[in-house]
Amino acid sequence: AQSVTQLGSHVSVSEGALVLLRCNYSSSVPPYLFWYVQYPNQGLQLLLKYTTGATLVKGINGFEAEFKKSETSFHLTKPSAHMSDAAEYFCAVRILEYGNKLVFGAGTILRVKS
Amino acid sequence: KAGVTQTPRYLIKTRGQQVTLSCSPISGHRSVSWYQQTPGQGLQFLFEYFSETQRNKGNFPGRFSGRQFSNSRSEMNVSTLELGDSALYLCASSLALANTGELFFGEGSRLTVL
């Protein structure tokens, strides 16, 4: 069975500090991995995705994530947090062999302190 | 290019009633997925439609149903509403099934059941 675990339902960082949001997945086959962001009262927007190839993926708004197969992880990072980064972030896994459903983690709310 | 449009954005119903939500995908997108988002359960997959056929289904009771029309627009229906059905219902579209592409989400329909 596939599952996605996001460590920490809430993360708080200071403006300018490193952002690190953790995501681990369980899958017996290589997955497709995604990070989405949701701002209040809005739908989800794709930040970045990993399908194949380079394991370090760069996304929008300065975010990047690295796929580490040995650790079954896909952590999201940003070198310097901005106030506008405050939102809820979702890691998601999509596996063709399992019906191609997109399965989301529980989400991490990022708070940025001034 | 217009995004995914969901209507209505907000609605209030009472227990026992039924509700129909509508989703217009991005032009050219043939796949529509529905998700239920609640604070306690997070994002839960409801179903996915492609070419007017349901291709994937989540673990929801039969009170939840959907359909897709020839123009790719989709509707979902919830009958005999329960208090626990209060949620944000998100629709997402993509070009096709079994692809590595991203899902494009609408802003959601927020249902409150009293």
Tell me what the structure shows.
The complex is a heterodimer of chains A (114) and B (114). Helix content of chain A is 0%, strand content 55%. The mean pLDDT of chain A is 91. In chain A, strands 2, 4, 5, 9, 10 and 11 form a six-stranded mixed beta sheet that branches. In chain A, strands 1-3-8-7-6 form a five-stranded antiparallel beta sheet, with no helix packed on it. Chain A starts with a strand and ends with a strand. Chain A is mainly β and 114 residues long. In chain A, a hairpin with a 5-residue loop joins strand 4 and strand 5. Chain A has strands spanning 3-7, 10-14, 19-26, 32-38, 44-50, 56-58, 64-68, 73-78, 87-94, 102-104, 108-113. Chain A contains no helices and eleven strands. With 114 residues, chain B is an all-beta fold. Helix content of chain B is 0%, strand content 53%. Chain B has no helices and eleven strands. In chain B, a hairpin with a 2-residue loop joins strand 5 and strand 6 (53-57). The radius of gyration of chain B is 13 Å and the shape is globular. The interface between A and B is medium-sized, with 22 and 21 residues.
